[in-house]
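Anyone up for a design puzzle?
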């Protein structure tokens, strides 16, 4: 069984929605300023549409990013973290543990 397409029924393409949401998350602009930025780029989208897409698709994109990061970390099969040398300063003197 395949997953239903979350972008089905939207006039704008999948790439436009993804780009719009990612840019809105990345840059700290208000919705109206972001609408003006898109207008200058030639994309006619309302600020309310951006807010709706952000609420609807934001968690999905965040989950994809988290999943990709976890998979990337798991690809390093021998990835481990080690603390080798520890130096502690006590009363101005440095000691090796």
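Challenge accepted. My sequence:
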């Amino acid at each position: 069984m395949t997953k239903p397409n979350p972008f089905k029924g939207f006039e704008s393409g999948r790439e436009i929605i993804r780009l719009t949401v990612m840019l809105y998350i990345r840059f700290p602009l208000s919705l109206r300023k972001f609408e003006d930025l898109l207008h200058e780029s030639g994309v006619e989208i309302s600020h309310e549409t951006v807010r709706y897409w952000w609420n609807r698709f934001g968690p999905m994109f965040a989950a994809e990013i988290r999943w990709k990061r976890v998979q990337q970390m798991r690809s390093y099969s021998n990835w481990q973290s080690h603390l080798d040398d520890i130096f502690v300063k006590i009363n101005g003197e440095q000691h090796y543990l």
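A detail worth pointing out: The two ends are 57 Å apart (CA to CA).
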